[in-house]
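Q: Could you fold this chain for me?
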Amino acid sequence: MNKDNLFDGDSLKAQFATLVYKRLMSRKLMTYADVMADYLPVPMSDQISSYPKEYGELRKAFRDVYHAIVNEEGEGSIEVYGNNRNRSFLYVGDNNNPLAAMINARVIKDLKKYWEFCQDSAGFMPETWLEYYLADCQDLISIKTKKKKGEQVISSGVDRHQTNIEYLPMLYESIKNHQVLSIDYKPYEEEKVTHIIHPHYLKEYNGRWHLFGYVEGAEPKEGIDLALDRIANRPREVYDKEFIYAPDRFYEIFFEKIVGVSHQKDNYYGVIRVRAYTLYIFKLMETKKLHKSQETVLPFEEHDDGIYGEFSIDVEVNNEFIGRILQMGDGLEIVAPKEVRDIFRERVAKMAELYKK
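A: Sure. Below is the predicted structure, expressed as structure tokens.
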């Protein structure tokens, strides 16, 4: 951190310095209370002195910014009004950005940190994306060199070498450019079909990529899921059709009540009660939720009928939800409702039959 740069670092003082400078450069009257209101995420009381730590750092930050501006623009560049208890300040200097050198130095440092993160986080991205977007770029050479030397410090546990993953950049560009596509698609154990799709959305789940969009001639037409590994050959651009856009917030709503990517016709949807029988599974479920609707309804402790904890989850019962629950083995049990419990009972019974032979 550069100690001479008022805006450098993440300290409270540096944050206040940035807010003070922004207020002054607006060329409007400002007060300490204005800056404190910019900083606090909740409505502030009338007495900013009720925040002694923040108020102290704000005063120091203002003092340093004030002197830095006066040093550049001269005395009188900041006018002061009112008394000590109710002062306001107005910047009247000629330069619209007198501390530009400090601000730019902070921006350059932030960009450098971002660039380093992008290089290190390349392990999250499929290699085809890197090859496509960083082709002939020094960054790609640096990323490959880091990986070869074993210096990459971030990676993903998901296998990135899936069938057709090389189509990801093209599909992404088609979504961004509103390009209609013709896709030859072969579901498992079914005949190959050709879909005309207006691509809207890409989603990865459990290491598998899915393309969603409006598919002509299909029912429903919206939100059709094409798994990348089932695409038979490279998608082709279609230029004689007008692109059909997704309705506003369609995919936000589409994914809101499911785990994973699939909606299945006539599936149960509602609140499901799940019981965890070991502290490890309970904590695992608590810290790695199956769905954003998950809530703890019973803490893990001794109850009248045993030791356990319980969660409620408000979702549709699809294959992804079933798989995530069964993944925990006998550590989890669906307690209610009965119709969902019956679905799991049938699945578990079929699994048990496989191991009786």
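A (continued): The radius of gyration is 29 Å.
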